[in-house]
Design the sequence.
């Protein structure tokens, strides 16, 4: 079983990035999303680079991207 997405939800102006990436070191999800208030930022690795999108993709988009990145 491989987690697809790890989401961390916090109040606005809360530091969450280090916390969620620390969790993901253990969990190993392909994608990480940080939600602060109504804003979402989704992160993933492409080769050795961390890239992001300013929204939470749909399950289908995440699944297809995971297939492409493997």
Sequence:
């Amino acid at each position: 079983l491989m987690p697809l997405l790890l989401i961390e939800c916090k109040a606005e102006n809360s530091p969450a990035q280090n916390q969620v990436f620390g969790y993901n070191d253990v969990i190993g999800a392909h994608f990480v999303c940080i939600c602060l208030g109504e804003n979402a930022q989704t992160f993933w690795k492409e080769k050795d680079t961390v890239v992001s999108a300013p929204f939470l993709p749909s399950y289908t988009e995440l699944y297809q991207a995971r297939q492409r990145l493997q």
Q: What stands out?
A: The longest helix spans residues 17-27. The CA atoms of residues 44 and 51 lie 6 Å apart. The mean pLDDT is 90.
